[in-house]
Each structure stands twice: as C-alpha cells, then as structure tokens.
Amino acid sequence: MRSSLTRRGLLAAGSGLAATAALPAVSGCSSLAAAASDPDTLVVHTQLGTTAPGSATYLSALDRFRAQNPGLKVKNLINGDDLGQVYETSRLARKEADVVMVNLYDKTLAWTDVDATVDVGGYLDDWRLRERVLPAALSAWTDGKGRLRAFPYFATNWPVAYNRALLDRAGVDAIPTTGDQLIAAARKLRAKGIAPVTVGGNDWTGQKLLAQIIQTFLTPDEARHAYSTGDFGSRGAREGIEYFTTLRDAGVFADKAQGLTSDTMNTQFNTQAAAAQSAMSSALAKVPENVARHTEVGGWPLADGAAHDKPTVIRAFTLIGFWISPNGVRKIEHVEKFIRFMYGPETVARFVQESGRDMALHTDAVSADFPLVAAAQRLGSGVSEVLLPDVYVPPAATQPLITATSTSFTRGTSAARVRAALESAYRSV
C-alpha cells in the first residue's frame, strides 16, 4: 500500500464526492483552512453533534472543556456517513482537522498505513492513559504492524432484543435459544400478524446479522480467515450459510427484509410491529420505555453442531476513537488536553449515564436510565461472542458486501448463490 494519500488512490476508492462538494460540508474551505492553520484553535472532526447517540453529552463536554481552557478555541466539524470522504479530501489539501472521532471501518482501516493519521501508541504511554483502556479495546485498535490507530472510546454490545409481551401474545413460552425454537416461534408470531425478527437486510445491520449467523459454525480464527480473504468455502462457513437460508426460508425474518434499513428495523421494533431485532447499544438506548419494560435481551439462537455452546452476541470496541492527524501532531499540546479531558472519569461516566453508551474505557458508571443497555452489559458469560467483521473486511469489499447482503435476505436465494454473492464482493480487492 502506498505511503501517502493520492487522489487516484484512497480518495478515488471512496464515495466519489468531488472536493468542491465535500469541503463545504464542514463549513467551507476557507473556514476549515483558517482553523487548521491557527495554532490556538483545535479542530475536531466528528459524527457527534446532531442526532447521533451521545451528541448532547458530547456538545456539553465541549462546553466544559472550553470553559476550562479559555485560551484555546475549539472548532467542531460535523459529518455523518460521509465523514471519511470529507476528511480524506481535506487531508489531500493538508487542511485536515487535528482530531477525528470516527469508527474503525471501511476507509478508516487504511488511514494509519497511508499517513492520513498517526500511530498514537507513544502518546497513550507518554500521557499515562494506557491503564484507562480496556485490554480488548487496545487489541482491537492495534493494526498488524503493532500501531495503535486511535485512542479507543466508544464500544458496543450487540445482543438480540426480544419483546416478551409479543412473544406471550403469540404463545411463545420462552426466549428461543435454538434454531428450531426460533422457527417455531416465528410461525406462532406470524399467525398473530406479528413480524418475527426485523432486520435491515439492505444495509449494514443486515450485513452484521448475516455475519453473526454464519459464525455459528466458525471458530474466531476461521471467521477472521473468511472475512479477511472472502473465502466462504470452508465446511463451517457453508454450514453457517445453510443455517441462515434455512431460517430465512422458514419465515424467521420480517417480510421483504432485503429492502429494509436500520431505520425501518428500529421503527418496526419500537412500534411493536416486530417481536425481535439484533440491536447494538445505541439502538437499545432508543427503545421507548413502554416497550423496554417488557423487552429482554439475549443471544442469537444456535443450531446443532455449532462451534459455540451458548447463543451468540457481537461485542466490539471500535465504534469511535480519537484519531490524530498530521496537523494534530503540530498542535499536540492542545490535543493532549482534549483527550485527557475526554478520558476523564467524569466525562466518561456522563456518556454512560446520559446517553447509554458503552465505553472502551474502564468505568464504574451504570446506564440506569437505559435498562436494555445495562441488561446487555450484564449478559457476560451467559452468551458466546462472535467477531465483528469490520476490522477484517478489506475496504474495497465493504459496500459490495452490503449488496450481497440484500441478495442473501431475498427468500429463495440458495445457499450456493449466497456464498457466491459474498465471495464476489471480494473480487475488486
């Protein structure tokens, strides 16, 4: 891989936004350039600040940070899913933000390797913050060359939420723990006009659930191999795909799941049109109180011969980290103040208590106002963990895998065609 960003390389691999369209999304070229060059202004580029979970807590934290550092200005740049493209465009112009708050996924996987951001391991030690980070988070954010890509911050639990009231209405006596029980429950729910499991089969939520189900028959090492290489031909991967198609064709997933998105999935569950969903912490935090009080969380049901002995969940520590850019290195004293503040126990606790966020840092705070988030945290050894594939999937395969996911959720698509669709997503890698 090349050592620096080029317009033909990393930028061209992105969403195709032109530079003239991308930079105005962060308040315009001139304002970004001025802020980036001002030694007394810290520029933070983040996905928090609008409706993203934790935004209100983050903006409040910024206000407190500014009050504690009156001589330091902070410019907050906000983008959504296009943050990676916008950041890369600004980096090509050497006008990038000093700190970037984004997850480890797709385009960002390459940033440290192409000098778009820097290895922060030395800073973590120099600032004596290593003991604040959960060991699993440090491992997840460290690349194959031993470089720490970013300061870990948000984590997530990803269990299955089951609406106990809807299950009771359909005569389902217990939360399903096996595939046969799940299929039987789906039949009873459909008889009552209730969608069984809702899922965004047309976006990343469906891709994650599909990956989770395929891993039913895979060890962690086998799963890493499959999602790193696109080789789904092993016995375990083929059995996992067959398990998925069996569940799908038995009516386990909501009708037309291949066209649903994360928004429609959450809406169906939160309005009690569906009995279950695979939901990460941020989605669990948004379940209305009248639904949450009769919702239980657990794992995805297993099939005979599974590689796991308990229903599975995804746990991940790469949801948001603090990346330092080359511009940030020039303002490293300001960056240190900001990260120390964000790593402070009070700030971390507020994200847990006010926003229901799971953290990649040690904290004693509890999500008391977010009972489903807290319940997911308590699952502990009662479930088995499978891998989040994000850090293993090559960036060029990420979007093609979403397309393959929609194909996979289309009822009647054979296991062989699902495998072919998954493997074809890696052809451009």
From TrEMBL:
Keyword Nucleus part of the UniProt annotation: no
SUPFAM superfamilies, A to Z: Periplasmic binding protein-like II (SSF53850)
Keyword Signal on entry: yes
InterPro entries registered for this protein in UniProt: Bact_solute-bd_prot1, SBP, TAT_signal
Transmembrane segments: none
Region forming the signal peptide: 1-18
Keywords for this protein: Signal
One of the Pfam families matching this protein, by short name: SBP_bac_1
Protein name: Carbohydrate ABC transporter substrate-binding protein
Organism, scientific name: Streptomyces acidicola
Source species taxonomy: Bacteria, Bacillati, Actinomycetota, Actinomycetes, Kitasatosporales
